[in-house]
Specification:
Helix content is about 40%, strand content about 10%. It has 17 helices and twelve strands. Helix 6 runs parallel beside helix 12, helix 7 (about 130-150) crosses helix 8 (about 165-175) and helix 12 crosses helix 15. The structure holds pyridoxal-5'-phosphate (PLP).
Length: about 475
């Protein structure tokens, strides 16, 4: 496809603005451009066609089956977008005086109290701009608490190997040392390894639950007990709450701090990098350390609170406010019962698809999954040479988005499916049928999958080069 600059023809234009009646020339000589700005010159219909052609190359959740799930993009109800676009929310300025943004403070306060209720925490901040940033914030709360309670020497955070990759990264960013512990055979935390790892230097544990294999750890109460008895605190990576809303509360499981990715479970489209917001919830003992700018109810309305013990701001102002508006709209429109049903459907859909596929390809572990499950194509790869990536490319030719590939790292040739709550049985049946026929094709005609996709504009780009040395601008003369 041609660049818009390559379509440009001098003198062709689509703007029909009248000449300005005002004199022009107030720019001092030194500030003027030496050459006129180079803009593409096209007719209106050419511009329209150019962008429509680009649009057609995009595959999104609005096009068809998209098993990257809430972790990347689940279907987000349109009403949440409409509410976030209301001028009273969209056109405010973060420096406006409190009394002029009372409605916005009410949004933050209401969302905080509803989400605290959902996860069993006592206080919440919306300042962090993404999940990893939320982890960073939560670990700083743990650090501040230990400092004030005789635990300054505790410098180790235990991170099971089934954790999300951001957990060890955040641990290291906050100056803690990582103690990695392996998973047991069934994918849960190895309790013996945990018992052996805790000690007087334990600051805490970070647990991704459901873990990256899509499993809810059956020993969760024992896990938090072991860590607390050793004097550490428990961090719950709740980036993805899609499986457990209204069913289980991390606060009741013994966790002291949690982050929720509002851009995953709570309805903000974020595929492609933003915007995000992590809600960091804390138990009472950590509440005073939360970053400032939390909205609180007063006798006359709402106000910002900045606690003197706070770890300080982790982002400008009060976070990605419009993400919070969408989350509140989602929470209020579904209600407690609706959130619970959404999670139940997410789990049901994942298990339905898992059962359809498991006869044809092994899964990473046995038994029921939560909102996602992992196929391992290790055997298939050995037998036929068809890799997880080849199968994913084949899915493109079936008009579906591939699932997450090569994640989690502890499963070889992994394909992780997360269908989410909004897919119908028909869609899941069709998707399963397509994947099963690709698995059969891998055995009968592996060559075909090595050369897939054949229907897309771009087939097999050099993914490393695309990530490391992307060409994102076109050098014009
Ligand atoms: C997505 C995710 C994160 C990281 O969130 P970002 O917003 O991408 O920084 C952390 N933990 C889990 C379990 C996740 O799914």
């Amino acid at each position: 496809m041609k660049l818009i600059y390559e379509r440009s023809v001098p003198g062709r234009e689509s703007a029909i603005l009248p000449a300005s009646a005002l004199p022009f020339g107030g720019i001092s000589a030194g500030m003027k451009r030496e050459k006129p700005l180079r803009l593409p010159e096209l007719s209106e219909v050419d511009v329209c066609r150019h962008y429509t052609a680009l649009n057609k190359q995009v595959y999104g959740v609005n096009c068809g089956f998209y098993p990257l799930g809430s972790c990347t993009m689940k279907y987000n109800p349109a009403v949440n977008e409409e509410v976030a676009a209301l001028p009273g929310f969209q056109n405010i300025h973060p420096l406006q005086p409190e009394e002029t943004v009372q409605g916005c403070l009410e949004v933050l306060e209401t969302l905080g109290s509803r989400l605290c209720e959902l996860v069993g925490m006592d206080a919440m901040t919306f300042q962090p701009a993404a999940g990893a940033h939320g982890e960073f914030t939560g670990l700083l709360l743990i650090k501040a608490y230990l400092r004030d309670n005789g635990g300054a020497a505790r410098n180790k955070i235990i991170v099971p190997d089934s954790a999300h990759g951001t957990n060890p990264a955040s641990t290291s960013m906050t100056g803690f040392q990582i103690v990695n512990i392996p998973s047991a055979q069934d994918g849960s935390v190895d309790l013996d390894a945990l018992r052996a790892a805790v000690g007087p230097d334990t600051a805490g544990l970070m647990l991704t639950n459901p873990n990256t294999l899509g499993m809810f750890d059956k020993n969760i109460l024992e896990i938090t007990r072991i860590v607390h008895e050793a004097g550490g605190l428990c961090y719950y990576d709740g980036a993805n709450m899609n499986a457990i809303m209204g069913t289980a509360r991390p606060g009741d499981m013994g966790f002291d701090v949690i982050h929720l990715n509002l851009h995953k479970t709570f309805s903000t489209p974020h595929g492609g990098g933003g915007p995000g917001a992590a809600a960091v919830g804390a138990k009472e003992i950590l509440a005073k350390y939360l970053p400032g700018r939390s909205a609180v109810k007063t006798e006359t309305g709402y106000a910002f609170k900045d606690d003197p013990a706070s770890i300080g701001a982790v982002r400008s102002f009060y976070g990605n406010f419009l993400v919070c508006v969408r989350a509140l709209c989602y929470v209020l429109s579904l209600g407690g019962k609706g959130l619970h049903e959404a999670s139940q459907n997410a789990v049901l859909n994942a298990n339905y698809l898992r059962v359809l596929l498991k006869e044809h390809c092994p899964t990473s572990n046995e038994g029921l999954c939560m909102h996602e499950f992992v196929l391992t194509l290790e055997e298939l790869h050995k037998e036929t040479g068809v890799s997880a990536s080849d199968l994913a490319k084949g899915m493109l030719d079936c008009g579906m988005h591939p699932p997450t590939m090569y994640f989690p790292l502890i499963v070889h040739e992994a394909l992780m499916f997360e269908p989410t709550e909004t897919e119908t049985k028909d869609t899941l049946d069709e998707a399963a049928e397509a994947v099963i026929s690709l698995l059969k094709e891998a055995r009968s005609n592996p060559e075909a999958l090595h050369s897939a996709p054949v229907t897309t504009t771009i087939g097999r780009p050099d993914e490393v080069a695309a990530a490391r040395t992307p060409i994102i601008r076109c050098a014009l003369d």
